[in-house]
Amino acid sequence: MHRAYRPKQVIAALALAVFSVGWTNAHAAKGAGTLDLKMETHAAFFSAETKQSKPLDPQVFVREANAPAGIGPQNIQHGAGLRPALITDPPQTTLFTSEGRPLGFTLGDWLGAKGTVDIAADRKTVTVRLEKLRPNATYSLFENHFDQQPIGFTPLDGTGSANSFVTSANGKAKVSVKAPDVLTHANAVLLVFHSDNAAHGMSRGELGVTAHHQLIARIP
Questions:
Q1: Torsion angle of the four alpha carbons 160, 109, 54, 97, in this order, in degrees rounded to the nearest 10
Q2: Is there a cis peptide before residue 102, judged by omega within 30 degrees of 0?
Q3: How many CB atoms within 10 Å of residue 45?
Q4: Do 102 and 85 touch, CB atoms closer than 8 A?
């Protein structure tokens, strides 16, 4: 399991989601005390926090003929002929699960996802806007708990009943969630892609097999 991520600021548990598929480039005017965060790829975030000599994505894999079976930097077992994708691999490189199942897109597609997280002044109301995701695919929003060892993860809605959604035909989505508690710097908002096209309730799914962290925003 990787080490605790770097500090920034505020946010911790989320519940009751009312989401609608769609995207708007224009952000509504925000009042005092709100936060407007840009999500980054989990690959870049993880690599920086764990000081990888070669920045990589520990949860998606590429073919390499001579690669032995092994355990990656996030304790994900992968088969022979596979290795974790490097951020510097060619963008057209095809991605696979740790078991060698095609994910259906390239590294460029995967790392090209974008998102923002808007947090209202009450530190409970969260709106996530996403684009360049896999069209008509299943995703979930989770919360990282950096104050737990090992790092904990809970559904952004707190119950696993309203944190999942399906993207539109153009790979966009807008998700609004009301947290049960005030969020703190011990948290981040995490986007999980489900390669089995199914939500897993309170669980993210099996990392590298059916669940793959794609975007993240640590609360400042």
A1: 60
A2: no
A3: 20
A4: no
Provide block-wise average pLDDT over 10 residues at a time, the chain (220 residues): 38 32 38 86 97 98 97 97 98 98 97 96 91 98 94 94 95 92 89 97 97 95
> What is the C-alpha to C-alpha distance for residues 106 and 219, in angstroms, rounded to an integer?
29
Residue located via tokens 């099996």? 206
Cβ–Cβ < 8 Å for 173, 21: yes
Percent of the chain with pLDDT over 70: 85
**Structure tokens given for 217:** 């925003």
pTM for this entry:
0.85
Cα-flanking dihedrals φ and ψ of residue 199, to 5°?
-75, 155
User: What torsion do the CA atoms of 27, 106, 59, 8 make, to the nearest 10 degrees?
Assistant: -30
State which amino acid sits at residue 219.
I
